[in-house]
Amino acid sequence: MDKRKILMPAVFIAIIGLFLQFMYFPKIGQARELSLEYRKIRTEINELYNFIGGEEKLKDSMIIMRNHVAELEQAFPSEKEASNTIKQLNEKAVKFKVNVISMKPGDLINYTDVHGSQLKILDQPCKSMPINLSLEARYQSIGDFLEKIELDKKPLISVMRIEMRKDQNLSPKIKAEVGLNACILGE
Length: 187
What we know:
single chain; alpha+beta
């Protein structure tokens, strides 16, 4: 009878131990993992709402973000659309009564950061397309044309250098050599 009194609690404790080991503790671990995953997802959703302006403005914010991406695409044309950049420069020159004598695009150059890593925009490598222009126009027209190029960010072009010289045969016009730099997204 003594063996039975000792054996019954020992078997009962062993059964409880097995239950805890194989059923209870694994379920507790799964519940913790799910709780952590839920908190992580909830935090990411809140960050997304903070980024796009909240749940109630989701549609408007998505339209604004889509328009922003479209503006970036216009500011940074692809290599295939590089000829459009040259076309746009010619059209702007005509608007400002600037005579483009010649336009020579150079080879594309990779933009890199201070560590030498390739810069990327929209997950595409960013490249520089140097363009040399020979112009003929009045001072004011050339100034207005270059200002429009730099202020208009579609496409993103910067003036790197300008050399002007007055020619007595062209008076009141001048000749100018302009070095531009257009930003292009590579393939």
